[in-house]
Amino acid sequence: MEDPSSQEDKLGVLKVLEALKQASQELQAHSAHNSAHSSSYAVKALLELETESESILSKYPHLSSLSQYLADLKSLVETLEQARGHGLRSFLTRRVSTHSISRVAGSIESEIQAWIDRESIESLIKGLNEPWNNEDELVRLLTQFEDRLSQGFNLELQNLVLKSKAFLVLQSVLCNPNCSKRICENAAFCIAALIRFNKDVFVGQVNMGVIIHALLDMRSIHRVKVLCELIKFTKSPFVDEIVSNGEIPKILSFLESKDLEMKVLAFDCILEIGYFGRKEAVEALLKGELIKKLVELQRSELGGVLIEMGKFGGENKERERMKREKREQKYLENHPFASCVARFAVQLEVGEGLRQREKRAFKQEILTRVREASVSDAEAATIIAEVLWGSSL
């Protein structure tokens, strides 16, 4: 266990650093509008914190650069104070000093963020590797990590993640049967966030089979969301793994869930599989009676027919198309399975996983299965028309 006094010290440092970071951000904002002056709130705050933090920062080697930047800032502000005349030289000195102050403030912010990231990741990995006695704290750390990743790519942050082996630790937690549902789901969100952060680096670290099984092992809305996201980012190889692991029937079973959100997510997941899946994936979906299930959903109160929204045309086809798409989107909010058969067929038609002859063959098979699943010739005719019209849905 970490020494409580050491933990208190770090909390104290963090409080000072957060204040420094806020002041440096404000200073950069003021400098962008040419209003950075030693009397401004941001500069005064930074200089006061520089004095206050001197003894605190000296205890942490990683913060030595920050101490130097704060000293540089103090020097630049003194130079700016001395350039109060109205001559050209004073004007140029003020402009250069203002720019330099903004640059140093940016460096201060970067140094602070790097320290916070380092401490946060260290605390997270330590928490994940120890007995999970404080679940709320661990969930807080996982959420904090996910939020940080969502701020966009940062090379220093990526290096910290790789050095800490955070991805492998998160995978281990997700696949641990003794892990609580909350921790598992938050670990899954972090895995998805890492792949969004830089898929070129982190997709290669995904143990696809193990993760797929862990995500589908429990009927969890959050896990299916992550599964959909992983399919989007890892594409055909991930779908191949789903098929080879025999997980398609489990995904299809979610369409029969009593939970509407689960049903909708399952359909979204199937659409992604249809777009990226190869022949084997589509065959597995059709053998699992997907078309029959979709026809039933389209027939339900949550279904409907988008073709009834009307074809676009007229002088301005683009404007009419946009109006139609807006009407369809509004309709889909309350009828998520409207035209779901045709929407699946479109995914196959425009997707990346099938060859042209396979697309044609599957389209014919879908039409055949629609006829078999329909309760009337009228229902079959409507759905078939939508499938044939498909590409405008």
Write the layout of secondary structure elements.
Layout: H1 4-32, H2 41-57, H3 64-82, H4 88-129, H5 135-149, H6 155-164, H7 166-174, H8 181-197, H9 199-202, H10 208-216, H11 221-234, H12 236-244, H13 248-253, H14 260-276, H15 279-287, H16 290-299, H17 317-334, H18 340-350, H19 356-373, H20 377-389
Helix pairs in contact: 1-2, 1-4, 2-3, 3-4, 4-5, 4-6, 4-7, 5-8, 7-8, 8-11, 11-14, 14-18, 16-19, 18-19, 18-20, 19-20
Summarize the structure.
The chain has 393 residues and is mostly helical. It is built from 20 helices and no strands. Among the domains are: 130 residues, Four Helix Bundle (Hemerythrin (Met), subunit A), CATH 1.20.120; 104 residues, no CATH class.
Structure report:
- The protein has 393 residues and is mainly alpha-helical.
- Among the domains are: 1-130, Four Helix Bundle (Hemerythrin (Met), subunit A); 290-393, no CATH class.
- Helices cover 75% and strands 0% of the residues.
- It is built from 20 helices and no strands.
- α1 (4-32) packs antiparallel against α4 (88-129) and α7 runs antiparallel to α8 (181-197).
- It is elongated, with a radius of gyration of 29 Å.
- 33% of the residues are buried.
- Residues 1-5, 34-39 and 311-315 have low confidence and may be disordered.
